[in-house]
Design goal:
alpha/beta, 376 residues, 46% helix, 15 helices
Amino acid sequence: MKIAIVCYPTFGGSGVMATELGMSLVDHGHEVHFIAYKKPVRLIDLNQKLHFHKVNVPDYPLFSFVPYELALSTKLVDVVINNRIDVLHVHYAIPHAYAAYMAKKMLKEQSINIPIVTTLHGTDITLVGNHPSYKTAVTFSINKSDIVTCVSKSLKEDTLDQFDIKKRIEVIPNFIDINKYIVQQDLCLQENPVQSKEFIISHVSNFRPVKNITNVIKIFYNIQKELKAKLLMIGEGPDKSSAEDLCNELGISHLVEFLGNTNQVEKNLCHSDLFLLPSSAESFGLAALEAMASKVPVISSNTGGLPEININGETGYVENFEDVDQMSKKAISILSDRKNLENFKNKAFLKAMEYDINNIVPLYEKTYQKALDSIK
Ligand code: GMT
C-alpha cells in the first residue's frame, strides 16, 4: 500500500507516534510519504520506500497569519497524484483533517477517490478542538473522514461527549517497540552494573501547562526529604523556567538536571527508578508507556487515558493531578522497599508489552484496508 501520513513534526506525542508508525509500515513492506512543515524529529534514514514532503507556506505582507491549511491541502493533492497514494492518514485533527477533506474534494474533481483516516490524539479534542472558534470545523472534518481512530477509550468518550460525531470511532492505542527497550536495558546494565545508591526520578514532556511540572518538582522535593534521590527533567517548553525557579526557591537545584529534548528517551529512562506524570489532562500518556517499557513504575494523575495504562497499585499509582501529598507518599512507598520496587518495575514492563508495535501496527493496516473498501 502507498500511505501518506500528515503529522506535526515536533517532539509532541502525536508526531512521535505518527513517525514510528510510518517507519514500521515501511518495515511491513508499504511505501510511506510523510507530509509536514519540517522533517519529523524522529524520522531517520529516508529511502525508496520512505519519503518526506515539506509543506512550504509562503508569506505575504497582507497576511497576519499564513494560510497553512491551504498550502497543506495543495501539497496533499500533489503528493497523492504524483505518488499514486492509496490512503491518506492524518494525525491530530487540527488542521490536518480539515485540509485532508479539502484535498479529497479537489482530487475528486480529477476523478481520484482517496480515503481519509483521521487519528485523534488528545489536545485536538480536549483542549483546543472544542474552543468555539474551531469546534464547528473540527466536528465537520471528523464526520467527513472515512475512518476515525483515537488513542484511548477515554479519548473516545471525550470526543463523543463534546462533539456531535456521527462516525464510529475505533480505539487504536499508542505503541512502543519493546525490543528497542530490551536492548537498551542490556546496554545500560553493561555500562552501569552496580545499583546506584541514590534513586533516579524522571519526567519527560513538552513542559506545557497541562503537564503540571511544578507538581513534578514539589513531589520530588518531598521524596528527597526522605530518600537520597535526583530528578531528571527531559524536554523543553514554556514552563521550564518557572520549574527552574521553583527548584532554586526550594534549594534543590543541585539535585535536578534539565536535559532538554532527546530522540533517545530510552537511554535516559533505563537508569530511572520512578517516573512522574501529574498532568491535568492526558489522553494517553505516551511518556508513561515509554517509562514502563524501560521498567520504570509511574506515579501519574488519574486523568484521561492514564489509568488505562498505569494500573493503580500494580505498575505504579494514579492520583488526582493536584494531590501532591498523595503522589509523594505513594512515590516514597514504592521506593522505600527494594523488593517492592522490583515488583512494580516488573509489572510496569509486563503491562508495556501489551502495547508492543507488533500488536498495534497490524490494527492500522486493517484500518487502511477498511478505508479502501469503504470507498469502493
Ligand atoms: O502531550 C502533548 O501535549 C502533545 C500531544 C500531541 O498531540 O502531540 O499529546 C497528545 O497525544 C499523545 C500521543 O497520542 C498522547 O500520548 C498525549 O496524552 C496527548 N496529550 C494530551 O492529551 C495532553
